[in-house]
Amino acid sequence: MRRHEGSSPRQTRVVATIGLCPEETYATFLDSMAEAGVDVLRLNMSHARAGYAKEREILAWANRPIIDGSAPQVAVLADLQGPKARIGELPTDGLPLADGDTVTLVVDDVVDNTAALAADASEPRHWHVPLPGDVGPAVTRALRTLQNRQPGSCPRVLFGDGEIVVEVTAVAHSAAHARVVAGGALGSRKGVTIRGVDIDLDPFPAKDQADLDFLLDQGIDFLAVSFVRTASDLKRVRRYIAESQGADGPQIRLIAKIETLAAIDNIDGIIEACDGVMIARGDLGLQLGVEEVPLAQKTLATKARERGKPVIVATQMLESMIHNPAPTRAEATDVFNAILDGGDAVMLSGETSVGSRPYTVVETIARLALVAERYRSNPEALKRDRKWMRRYAREHAEDPFIGRINEEFALTAVQFAEHIPATAVVSFTRSGGTPRRLSRYRSAVPLLAVCSDDRVARSLLLCYGVHPIVVRDFDVDRDGTSPMVDAARDVLRTRYGLTPGDALVLTDGFNWPRGGTNSLRVLVEDLDAARGKERKRRSTGRFRNVMPR
Asked: 3-state DSSP call for residue 168?
């Protein structure tokens, strides 16, 4: 795996959407994607077909048992479609809307555009666009709400990714009348967005429930909930999972996709209710306007990091590489800034799902991430960053006393490891709580999380700087810590090139609440070899990966 390529491990995680398979089998394709550097596979359930043949093949490959003493190859993030408002079916070639044409958005499943298609294209034509099912009433309600809020205004309706725009001139109970201000070919099932207001649809529709039933049966690590508006949307999904799997079922970490105006207004409650945040800049940009997206990205990333929740920055990271062999300069800068803003992971969508060079795209974004991470290691920047991060974490801990101890141990472990400098911080964890806390402080030294559970290991693949290792045959309560430390050292020697004189900072929790830390130790590999050894302060955090996975 190229997660630890060369001597500098990549700390930022790469999420790649899996769509078309360019190889004979998905197994061959996914092996190559993992080798290129993918950490998390994204399944876009909007495109799932009856029977889930593609998803079954991908999940069977991803959920293979992790070899003892190894890191997980990948984790899986399933992305629910959510309550996306879409128009109905149109002719195969779509409707050729031209600037100045008029449009009626009709609350109906079927419309007739025969007359408009036969009319003279040199003159303005009148088109009918169907709004099927619950979409039609929801769209007209949203338009009336916006007109009541802004009397005399002409709300804008955007189709697809905003490439077609109409201005609404009048709204009735079962239709809305508009004129085209930015035309184009309007195809079937295009998304509908109303600038400035959310369309009120069921946040957890029947399709999502059916998809989730399949995903729970097959096994996933993360679930992205689309078009979240309030914390209650996430709680409803979490209850559904609990009722489906029972109290002892595997924990699935919920990722809140931030792409609605309501989510921005309710962001504090949403972050508390989720396990991670995806900044979905596509739909968010349609709602806010593109000029507001950069500030929203920085604000959302900061809020999530304050609470120790991983952040995925998504949409059009390297969009031009769908067709081109290299990104634009602006795209390279975007990836760099997303990581500096606090992103734990950067996500590829069409670049890997339908792009012509998926492996090249992954390798490119991994290289860009390495450069951004070197800049993040600036001592003064880290000092400022950690100061406010620790203060916020201490002030908002559920148990102020225990929380303060946990945070002090986490930051102390990171800073101590950087100053020795150590080869790595090694955390022995049952739940993944301590590695997630360590990740918040953006360690310049790699963070190794040793656990015995495959699911816990995979759940850490979304955390900046955390490199999980599965060592199954240990039980702290039964055997104490010595066998656990010996097993970890064996793995570090054989797979990460631990050599005589290398120092490790070890963290653990003894007689302590689950997910916390109250123990910090230093272990030196072959202590005699370390005496008098020159070691440069402020490590850049390097593994010597001698056994690629």
From this structure: strand
* C-alpha dist (Å) from residue 283 to 124, 256, 453: 30, 14, 36
Rg of the Cα trace of the chain? Answer: 25
Q: Is the dihedral angle over the CA atoms 464, 466, 470, 474 positive or is it negative?
A: negative
**Mean pLDDT, the chain, integer:** 90
Number of H-type helices and E-type strands within the chain: 20, 21
**What is the Cα–Cα distance from 502 to 500, expressed in whole angstroms?**
6
Contacts of 122 (CB under 8 A, 6+ apart): none
What distance in Å separates the CA atoms of residue 278 and residue 281, rounded to the nearest whole number?
9
CB 107 within 8 A of CB 134: no
**Per this entry, what is the length of the chain?**
549
The two structure tokens encoding residue 42: 């994204």
Closest by CA to 34, choosing from 11, 56, 16, 8, is 16
Cis-peptide, bond into residue 137, ω within 30° of zero: no
Q: What is the pLDDT of residues 428-487, one digit of tens each?
A: 888 898 999 999 999 888 899 998 899 999 999 999 999 999 988 766 666 666 777 887
- Name the DSSP letter for residue 536: -
Structure tokens at 408: 């002090």
Under a CB-based contact definition with an 8 Å cutoff, are residues 192 and 130 in contact?
no
Tokens 């202590």 belong to 527
Say whether pTM exceeds 0.90.
Answer: yes
Q: What are phi and psi of 31, to 5 degrees?
A: -55, -45
Which structure tokens are listed for 70? 């190894």
Q: Which amino acid is at 302?
A: T
Amino acid letter for position 39: D
135 contacts: CB under 8 Å, gap ≥ 6: 85, 86, 87, 192, 199, 201
